[in-house]
Structures are given as C-alpha cells and as structure tokens.
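Contributing new complexes? Match this layout with 6-O-phosphono-beta-D-glucopyranose.
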Amino acid sequence: MNEPDAPTPTIVIFGASGDLTRRKLMPALYNLYCKGRIPASTRIVGFARSDYSHDAFRQEMRAGVKEHSDRYGEDDWAAFSRNLYYSPGNPNSVEDFRRLDALVAELEGERAAGRLYYLATPPQLYPAVATMLGQANMHGESEHWRRVVIEKPFGADLSSACELNEKVHAVFKERQVYRIDHYLGKETVQNVSVFRFANAIFEPIWSRNYVDCVQISVLETVTVGRRAGYYDQAGVLRDMFQNHLLQLLTLIAMEPPAALNAQALRNEKVKVLSAVRPIAPGRLREHAVQAQYRSYRDEPGVAPRSRTPTYAAVKLHIDNWRWQGVPFYLRSGKALAERKTRIAVQFKRPPHTLFALKPGEKLAPNILAMEIQPDESIYLTFQAKVPDVGIAMQNVNFNFHYASAFGGDAIPDAYERLLLDALHGDASLFTRSDEIELAWGLIDPIAAGLSDPDAPPLEFYEEGSAGPTGAQQLLARDGFEWVM
Ligand code: NDP
Ligand code: BG6
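Output block (do not edit by hand):
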C-alpha cells in the first residue's frame, strides 16, 4: 500500500448516483483497493443531483459493490468506504462545482496529488461538466495533474463528436483527456498486440500474402432492455461499430508501433482508420446488412415503427500495402442465440493440393481465432492426418485457454485496468480525438445510408436465433462463411 502521509489522488465521479458507477466503477475501484493497486487512502467523491449524505452514498455504493464484486468483505469495505464522499450538485451550476472543489480541497489538505474527473453522466451533459470544471477553475495543473475521463458515447455522429472535442479542448489539453472504450481495457483485447508483436512467427504471415479475410464478430444475447431511449436513436452501428468493432479492427490491422506508448500506438491506429475505404454511395447493398430482432418494437420506449437496426454486418477494405484486397467482415447484434466476441483471421488455402479430395471438396483453410469473450482463448485450426487410414484429413486445433493457463479468475473487469491507467497517466488504452472523429467519419455515411432507397432492406430475425440470413449471404457472395 502507501505511506500513511503520502499525497494521494482524488477521483471525482460525475453522475455518481447512476447505474455505471454502482455496477462498474465502484466495484472496479474497490477491487483495485483490495489488490493494493491504488493507494489505500485514494479519495473518491461522488457528485450528482440526488440528495445523499456521505453515509447514504456509502450505503448505496456498498449495495453495488456487494452485488458486483466477488471480493466483497466487511472489513475491506469499511476501510475502503472511509474514503468515499458525496457532494450533491447540478451539472449546470458553477456554484455547485465550487462547493465540490472546496470539499475536495478540504479532503486533500496537505496530501493533495492529482485529480481524476470521471464523466459518468448522461452524454448530453459531458459538455456542461467540462465547461463547469473550467469555470470553477478545477482544471489547472499549476500544482498537480488534472485528468478527465469521458464515457461513451463520445458524440452521436461526426459533427457532435467534433463539437464535444471543441468544448472539452476549451478547458483541457488533449493529453489530459481519456475517452473510454471499455473494449480496450479487456485483457483479451490487450493481448492482440502482445500476440502479434511479442511473437515473431505471426507477423510475417499477417498480410494480404497469406490472409484471405478477417472476421470480427461481437454477438450478444442481451436485448436493449431499458435502454431504448438511447438505443432507438443510436442503433447498432453507432452503439457498437463506431467504437468497439473499429477499435478491434485497428488492433488487428495496424503496423507495429515504434514504441509501446500512447502516442505511437494511437498514431498507428489512426493510420488504419485513415486507410479504410469509405463505402461508395449506392454500393451499400454489396457491403452491408441491417436487421432488427422481431420483438424489438415491443420493447418499452421503442417507436412502434422503428427501423433502427439491432444487427448489422459490414464489409470493409483497408487501402494499404499490407491489406489491399483482403475483406474485413464486421458483424454485431443483440438478442442472438449466443454471446461471443471473436476475431478470426482466415488464411489462404494451399496453392496446390497433393491429397485426393472428393469432387467439389476443398481443404479447410487455417483459421486463427481470438476468442475475446466469454470463453477467453486463442485457437489455430489445421489439417491433420487421421490415423490408420490412407490419407484422410481432419481439421484439428491448437488451443490456448486463459483459464487453464492463468487460473479461472485471472481476468479482471476492463474498468479496473482503465481506471488504473488513467490514474497513472497512461492513455494507450483510450481513444484520441482524431481517432474518434475518423471512426465517426466512417460510420456516419453507413448509418445514414441505411435509410436510403438503395440501402440493404431491413431484415427481421427471431430473438435467440443466429441472426439474419443476409449476413451469411454477404460472405457467401465472396466465397466465405462466418467462422462458427
Ligand atoms: P444514468 O442514466 O444512470 O445517469 C447517471 C446519473 O446522471 C444519474 O444517476 C443522474 O443522477 C444524473 N442525471 C441523469 N439525467 C440528468 C439530467 N438531466 N441532469 C442532470 N443529471 C442527470 O447513466 P449511467 O450510469 O447508466 O451511465 C453513465 C454514462 O456512462 C452514460 O453516458 C452512458 O452512456 C455511459 N455508459 C454506461 C454504461 C452502463 O453500463 N451503465 C456502459 C457504457 C457507457 P442525479 O439524478 O442524482 O443527478
Ligand atoms: C456497450 C454498448 O458499449 O457495450 C452495449 O452500449 C453493449 O449496447 C456493451 O451491450 C457490450 O459490452 P460487453 O463488455 O458486455 O461486451
């Protein structure tokens, strides 16, 4: 842990009475405390309009942590919660921010270190909170660092994202801004770079010379539940593709960065996004599929004739030397039969087959699949000779499972890593302003184009099914099928 009188940072959470704080942020901070990863006396101050006392806030947070952390213990909670505080206030009131600032300063006393401001309010309030932090003079770094973490969604399209960047940059420098994409905090997503760049054998085959296609699937069983107010406006492209799927694509496709630091890493990701070929107007049918689960319009808050897609599949190309001609297929949907996030790299078949195949039969291609969740693993398929028969072949696997290699509970929640990195000032796993804007620039025309007359028709799929048939056809047209 830390010296009792050492300076310690303060985390201020805006929107602290909300679901994210209760379900994700507080359990993650508590786990970090229990593991000794943050100074034991790190102060956490909640800010929202709800009228809690410090104690009432602690009780609320206790319930959340009890439910969502498997490390919960009365003694640890008692020690951790001593450093939990609450300051009621309105995100639009500079007086309330000044009161908050005074409370934080009083708590810091002689032991002030940096401050992490976490914006967990509804997204339309992010500009107001950033502006108020500026007006209350809580952003300056003359003595200690100040950083701001901004939750997703960062904008609803390119112009609102640019506007939000402008508002935030009016108060904070880019190096102070940490935009969350929680997928980047997942261990298995961080492992993509380790897998690619800490092993010499994969990089030489990681290109158009050997790769036939790349598939990125983020399949969910959950429905939109109570989030219709947001989701019916956003749809799957803005909710999942603009951030999580494009981030996975950049990690798979980027060049090795010159160093493992935020600047170098994000420069490479930006180069990938800049090289993604925009889908030409009028060509959307060849490149995209949109669908909605059949009971979606019955969800509370969904417009009765909503045409918001809850599933999409998109084919993209990356115009650079490494990836020219290799299709990247991305798909994501809700209310599906299984929950699975997988990146599959499909390699080219041998150029000539020595072994007798039945008419029409082809050798199965080698597939390298990174199972991001829930069965965290990596496997590589290859052909093996079936014993005791002439030359018969079967597709078999090399397999690596996180649970068997590192133990069943080795994988922490993404928010633990992200909070820790933000406290340490490492922005590698956060998205930079140009990255966000490029991603919106790619998704905006696709999302908008889906309502054009020449767009792919909106399909409907059963809840608990494998999704729309159009997604199979998208790949079948190119001679591929989704890796199952
Ligand atoms: P909530 O909708 O629960 O809002 C958080 C808090 O903000 C509320 O408790 C409320 O506190 C305050 N608030 C709500 N509306 C207003 C308003 N009009 N004016 C002032 N304050 C308001 O959000 P979540 O906790 O679910 O999410 C927070 C942010 O994180 C959102 O931007 C969301 O998109 C993002 N996010 C959330 C995820 C989740 O799992 N929940 C996952 C990924 C991202 P009070 O009434 O006390 O002021
Ligand atoms: C969020 C989306 O960003 O990610 C949700 O808003 C989605 O719609 C969620 O369900 C998926 O995250 P995870 O970590 O459960 O795959």
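Reviewers usually confirm one structural detail per submission. For this one: The CA atoms of residues 194 and 298 lie 44 Å apart.
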